[in-house]
């Protein structure tokens, strides 16, 4: 009897506890304020992270049992703050200048709450209605910023069921994949006696078109999302042709002409030519105009990966750098990079509003043929109303605001490059085309040799190890941060420090502080010892 009552009690508690989670009570409001305070406190910290190394916090993340009982929210929050939030990275820090992630405008946080609260699913109209229309509208706006077609064009296509001006994705990776999926299905589409690659697969497609495989062409600096795309689309990573770049890290055009010819000679069908507007490693911009002309002449789909550099179109002073982007058949832009939006917003825009018909799918219970459902022409299924952030930013920051942000990033990158040129302790490896620059630290014993251009392979190996060590010590010290990459210089893979000047909060004195911090850390690293940093 006693046992039964206890069981009943527990049952009632579960019911009350769980149902309370779904209602908006005073308690819910107070928890919300508590969470806001956690975020505020985290963002006010002037350190980039704790100086604990990964090895010592990994132990806190080994438990794999689900909690058997319901738990009290406050104790959950305490645990979250101490174990997870504390060891996160403060990407808002003005001295965190190593990656493509930075501070966000304040309006995105409350809007995020609204988006989560409304819980719209833009996969179909029945779960989103206005949000689906909004997404089409906003993608139309970005489309117009790139292609600038006539008002008529946008009036016709922006909400027309058969048209797709763009697809919103969770990031640049999926945007690139979506673009190439469209291109593949177009290039190996249906024709007499063949219903298309999407339906019949690669072997049948190659037979139908009498070709020996397919290829995607771009520079060796293409983002690794193209390797993923080549694998997923079935053409194979080996068929992703990576061409050499010139000294300015832009695709070599004569290598491109040669590669197109080689593909033709081998009977390889070219799915797409990829131009990069802002490489991930150093922000270089391919000769888009020349590439567009070559693609047009050879009748090849031209895709521009502007995940990073796309928003440069908003700067009248610098947009010339992207000349030719308006000739692209498809363009990728990331919202969570230089549009200063939270993670999870990428997009691909299409010159031809009917291109995405090549990936169209329908399902009897949801995505119907005659509906305007966004899930119909998209790689992803269920998606949240992330477009809200994009709409807000385009309205609130606007063209002038983005112009300012882009121009400032470029100005600050040039400032940092000048500082580096002036200091014998540093060597500028790649000057910024936009707002990314590559450099390295040169310890005292090598400075004269570097100045005289007499660095040997052995010297370079030591400089590589020194810079690797400097960068990881800097991360662990946690006061300032730049990232690191490997770039080919005179045919040799070289370790470089990488600064990304994209945080609006970063000032010239923050840049000075980052370099000074590096001098301080470098002074503690021995240069003659083989055991450096080990
Ligand atoms: C960041 C980036 C990508 C990938 O985007 P994600 O949003 O990380 O998926 C692709 N290409 C370039 C040039 C990038 O900078």
From TrEMBL:
SUPFAM superfamilies per record: PLP-dependent transferases
A GO term, aspect molecular function: aromatic-L-amino-acid decarboxylase activity
Gene Ontology cellular component annotations, sorted alphabetically: cytoplasm
GO BP annotation list: carboxylic acid metabolic process
Keyword Lipoprotein carried by entry: no
Pfam families documented for this protein: Pyridoxal_deC
Cofactors that this protein relies on: pyridoxal 5'-phosphate
UniProt protein name: Glutamate decarboxylase
Upper classification of the organism: Bacteria, Bacillati, Cyanobacteriota, Cyanophyceae, Pleurocapsales
């Amino acid at each position: 009897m006693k046992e039964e009552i206890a069981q009943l009690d527990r049952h009632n508690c579960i019911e009350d506890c769980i149902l309370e989670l779904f209602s908006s009570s005073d308690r819910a409001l107070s928890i919300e304020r508590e969470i806001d305070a956690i975020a505020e406190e985290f963002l006010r910290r002037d350190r980039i992270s704790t100086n604990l190394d990964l090895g010592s916090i990994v132990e806190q993340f080994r438990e794999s049992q689900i909690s058997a009982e319901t738990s009290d929210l406050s104790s959950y929050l305490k645990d979250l703050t101490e174990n997870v939030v504390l060891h996160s990275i403060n990407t808002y820090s003005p001295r965190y200048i190593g990656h493509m992630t930075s501070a966000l405008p304040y309006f995105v946080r409350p809007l995020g709450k609204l988006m989560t609260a409304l819980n719209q699913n833009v996969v179909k109209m029945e779960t989103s209605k206005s949000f689906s229309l909004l997404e089409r509208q906003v993608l139309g706006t970005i489309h117009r910023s790139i292609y600038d077609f006539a008002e008529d064009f946008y009036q016709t296509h922006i909400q027309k069921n058969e048209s797709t001006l763009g697809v919103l994705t969770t990031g640049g990776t999926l945007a690139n994949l979506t673009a190439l999926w469209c291109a593949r299905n177009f290039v190996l589409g249906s024709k007499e006696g063949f219903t298309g690659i999407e339906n019949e697969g690669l072997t049948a497609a190659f037979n139908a078109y009498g070709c020996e495989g397919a290829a995607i062409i771009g520079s060796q600096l293409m983002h690794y999302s193209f390797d993923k795309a080549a694998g997923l689309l079935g053409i194979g990573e080996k068929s992703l042709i990576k061409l050499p770049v010139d000294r300015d890290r832009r695709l070599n055009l004569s290598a491109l002409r040669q590669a197109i010819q080689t593909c033709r000679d081998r009977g390889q069908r070219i799915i797409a030519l990829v131009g990069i507007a802002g490489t991930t490693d150093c922000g270089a911009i391919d000769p888009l105009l020349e590439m567009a002309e070559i693609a047009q002449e050879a009748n090849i789909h031209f895709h521009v990966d502007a995940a990073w550099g796309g928003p440069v179109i908003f700067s009248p002073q610098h947009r010339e750098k992207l000349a030719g982007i308006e000739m692209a058949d498809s363009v990728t832009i990331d919202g969570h990079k230089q549009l200063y939006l939270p993670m999870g917003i990428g997009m691909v825009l299409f010159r031809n509003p009917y291109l995405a018909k090549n990936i169209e799918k329908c399902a009897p219970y949801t995505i119907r043929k005659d509906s305007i459902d966004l899930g119909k022409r998209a790689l992803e299924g269920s998606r949240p109303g992330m477009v809200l952030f994009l709409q807000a930013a385009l309205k609130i920051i606007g063209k002038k605001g983005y112009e300012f942000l882009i121009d400032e990033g470029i100005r600050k990158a040039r400032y940092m490059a000048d500082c580096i040129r002036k200091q014998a302790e540093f060597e500028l490896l790649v000057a910024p085309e936009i707002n990314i620059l590559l450099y390295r630290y040169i310890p005292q014993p090598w400075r004269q040799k570097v100045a005289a251009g007499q660095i040997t392979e052995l010297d370079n190996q030591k400089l590589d190890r020194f810079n690797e060590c400097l960068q990881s010590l800097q991360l662990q010290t946690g006061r300032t941060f730049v990232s690191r990459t490997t770039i080919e210089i005179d045919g040799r893979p070289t370790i470089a420090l990488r600064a990304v000047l994209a945080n609006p909060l970063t000032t010239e004195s923050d840049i000075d502080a980052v370099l000074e911090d590096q001098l301080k850390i470098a002074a503690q690293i021995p240069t003659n010892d083989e055991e450096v940093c080990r």
